[in-house]
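Contributing new records

If you add data, match the layout below exactly. Sequence lines come first and carry their own label; structure lines follow with theirs. Keep one chain per record. Anything else will be rejected by the validation script.
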Amino acid sequence: MRFVKEFIKLFVVINTGILLVFALNTMKYDYIQTIYLWEIFEASAVTSLITAAFFSIDPKKEIPKYLQLLLILLHYACLLITMLFFGRSFGWIEKNTRGFLTMALSVAGVYLFTAVLSVITGLKDAQRMNEALNEFKE
């Protein structure tokens, strides 16, 4: 059940991030096809599943900082490969260096957006738990 809750939470954040990047990348157009929204929905679901699976691993002891960085880079690479696949399949990007760089930056933007929101919600959850513990002590 915890995995499903985490998947749903990640899906909402990642989907919002992808929609924001999409909006920024398509501002120059007068209209967009509605199929893009369904494609974004699909890409969000798959990347959320990858992210939830990736972060569901709970090591028994603390991971060294260099290994944490390596895991973050591996996670980013998995998401980039997934989004490059979707980008090419859905015709979002061209098959050239510019298309690759655009997708790499877009994935990085969504990654950063997701990380910032996760930190903010994590801090709020910790604050709520501390308040509950303080009330319990009194």
